[in-house]
């Protein structure tokens, strides 16, 4: 008899975890109205706090419009936005909190956010609903009272999402719209999964789509991004934790800046990163741009199976020595970094006729004197270009710009080669890299200065 009781107890213990469900906390039970008029973020925060106190579960946001300032997610809480649920950011920029201030690549203090989690574990945002930051309306209201130049004041506007030093982050299914600044920022997080997210964020400056900043063990897939600034961007704004073990696949990327970018802020490393099966289109400032300019070791990066349409300057690779510090109270300047062991393969690109460079060029690669981009392989690349380069264009001198902000225009307006222009490189390999010209171009197809290059047709 005792044996049967023990067996029943064992079966109960095995079944119990599958039968018990985490509790659901409906924000309307905590006072949220969802009418788009009353400030609902205090009620949403009460629901999150109650869920967290109970040990975790789901905070449910039903259909409706929820006017909000800063909302803070906490351990073991999933924020679920039902279909037709909209969290609408207030246009009062002073209503937002900055729980982790820092300075971005242009030297502006930033960090305010609508939805934020700091030092949290197992946090998620999911569902068929949306978050809208009302970026244009927020800016219009902001500039009426803040008369400084735009380059000085924009940093006060909130990001849409911020995840800071979190462990176990999931963002799935939601639509993110019209941030006041960056759309989403993941800083020093581990075990991050971003899947099936739609981003429509443009109308004000600095509307980056997804910013991965010093994160490890990251998986991003099946996202559709239309952004005013870089669509998919990897950063390291602190020297203590780099981007490592990241896999990205099946992305649609449109941007007024770059499609895929790495290293505008680059203090710590970018290593073991694979990006594949992406379509980049209608970008105004580059298709693939990889930089180390603040001390990062950028290495073991592979980007493959990429199509590009109407992309200004398809590729730019840069090792430089700007050596900025973005968290000045906790970080120090780093030595010049490393750019090595990068593979770009299987790319078909149609370059835009109108570009930052006149006439357009396909691929720019440059280190600085004494610091070389090493072992960069470009394989199975085909780029269609306007052409129209003149013999005078072929004599153009490209500035070193050793300590400048890394950008295509930094090296323009003219490049002396129409296909590949490379400088300060070692072990550059071109395998089946071809260019198609709409018009004749008097510039050479390939130029390599201060470096060695192997070309395989």
From TrEMBL:
<dbReference type="InterPro" id="IPR006626">
    <property type="entry name" value="PbH1"/>
</dbReference>
<protein>
    <recommendedName>
        <fullName>Pectate lyase superfamily protein domain-containing protein</fullName>
    </recommendedName>
</protein>
<dbReference type="InterPro" id="IPR012334">
    <property type="entry name" value="Pectin_lyas_fold"/>
</dbReference>
<keyword id="KW-0326">Glycosidase</keyword>
<dbReference type="InterPro" id="IPR011050">
    <property type="entry name" value="Pectin_lyase_fold/virulence"/>
</dbReference>
<feature type="signal peptide">
    <location>
        <begin position="1"/>
        <end position="22"/>
    </location>
</feature>
<dbReference type="GO" id="GO:0005975">
    <property type="term" value="P:carbohydrate metabolic process"/>
</dbReference>
<dbReference type="Pfam" id="PF00295">
    <property type="entry name" value="Glyco_hydro_28"/>
</dbReference>
<dbReference type="InterPro" id="IPR051801">
    <property type="entry name" value="GH28_Enzymes"/>
</dbReference>
<dbReference type="InterPro" id="IPR000743">
    <property type="entry name" value="Glyco_hydro_28"/>
</dbReference>
<keyword id="KW-0378">Hydrolase</keyword>
<comment type="similarity">
    <text>Belongs to the glycosyl hydrolase 28 family.</text>
</comment>
<keyword id="KW-0732">Signal</keyword>
<dbReference type="GO" id="GO:0004650">
    <property type="term" value="F:polygalacturonase activity"/>
</dbReference>
């Amino acid at each position: 008899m005792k044996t049967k009781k023990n067996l029943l107890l064992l079966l109960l213990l095995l079944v119990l975890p599958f039968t018990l469900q985490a509790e659901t906390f409906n924000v309307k039970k905590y006072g949220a109205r969802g009418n788009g008029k009353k400030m609902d973020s205090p009620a949403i925060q009460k629901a999150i706090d109650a869920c967290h106190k109970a040990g975790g579960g789901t905070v449910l946001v039903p259909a409706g419009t929820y006017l909000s300032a800063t909302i803070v997610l906490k351990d073991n809480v999933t924020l679920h936005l039902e279909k037709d649920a909209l969290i609408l950011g207030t246009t009062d920029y002073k209503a937002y909190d900055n729980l982790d201030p820092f300075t971005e690549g242009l030297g502006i203090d930033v960090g305010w956010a609508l939805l934020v989690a700091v030092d949290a574990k197992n946090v998620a945002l999911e569902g068929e609903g949306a978050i809208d930051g009302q970026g244009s309306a927020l800016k219009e209201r902001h500039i009426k009272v803040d008369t400084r130049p735009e380059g000085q004041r924009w940093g006060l506007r909130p990001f849409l999402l911020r995840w800071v030093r979190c462990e176990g982050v999931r963002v799935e299914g939601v639509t993110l719209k019209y941030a006041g600044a960056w759309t989403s920022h993941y800083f020093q997080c581990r075990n991050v999964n971003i899947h099936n997210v739609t981003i429509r964020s443009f109308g004000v400056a600095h509307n980056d789509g997804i910013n991965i900043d010093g994160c490890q063990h990251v998986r991003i897939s099946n996202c559709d991004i239309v952004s005013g600034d870089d669509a998919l961007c990897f950063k390291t704004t602190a020297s203590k934790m780099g981007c490592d073990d990241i896999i990205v696949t099946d992305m649609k990327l449109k941007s007024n800046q770059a499609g895929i970018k790495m290293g505008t802020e680059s203090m710590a490393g970018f290593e073991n990163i694979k990006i594949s099966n992406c379509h980049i289109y209608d970008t105004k400032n580059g298709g693939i741009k990889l930089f180390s300019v603040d001390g990062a070791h950028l290495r073991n990066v592979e980007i493959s199976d990429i199509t590009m349409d109407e992309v200004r300057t398809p590729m730019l690779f840069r090792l430089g020595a700007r050596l900025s510090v973005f968290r000045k109270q906790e970080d120090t300047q780093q030595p010049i970094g490393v750019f090595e062991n990068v593979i770009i393969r299987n790319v078909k690109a149609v370059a835009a006729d109108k570009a930052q460079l006149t006439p357009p060029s396909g691929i720019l690669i440059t280190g600085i004197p004494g610091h070389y981009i090493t072992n960069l392989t470009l394989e199975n690349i085909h780029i269609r270009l306007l052409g129209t380069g003149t013999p005078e264009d072929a004599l153009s001198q490209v500035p070193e710009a050793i300590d400048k902000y890394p950008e295509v225009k930094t090296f323009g307006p003219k490049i002396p080669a129409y296909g590949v222009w490379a400088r300060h490189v070692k072990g550059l390999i071109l395998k089946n890299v071809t260019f198609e010209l709409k018009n004749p171009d008097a510039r050479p197809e390939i130029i390599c200065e201060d470096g060695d290059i192997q070309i395989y047709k």
